[in-house]
Design brief:
0% strand; single chain; 101 residues; mainly alpha
Length: 101
Amino acid sequence: MSTWEDLDDTSSNEEEEEVNLCLIANTTSEEFESDQEDEVNLDDPESLKKAYHELLSNSSILSKAYKNLQKDFKNLSKDHMELEKNLQDKVGVSWDESTQT
């Protein structure tokens, strides 16, 4: 026998599924349009030159972002180690030991 709660969960799941399908369809159509815009005419030197400069620019942006992420990771790792050391000093248990139980 179903309860009202079961019926609410079922309709909610169906609505979520419908929303997800709509999002997938929308994303797929946007990717298709984007792929058409990104095509390069290999016979046109100007098109090749433009594509090359876009790739070069994107490469530079990604390289800078990667370096910033590396720096952030290094700082976060350092902070993590300091916090772990403080915890170990206060409690007498390291993070690795407390998670193994």
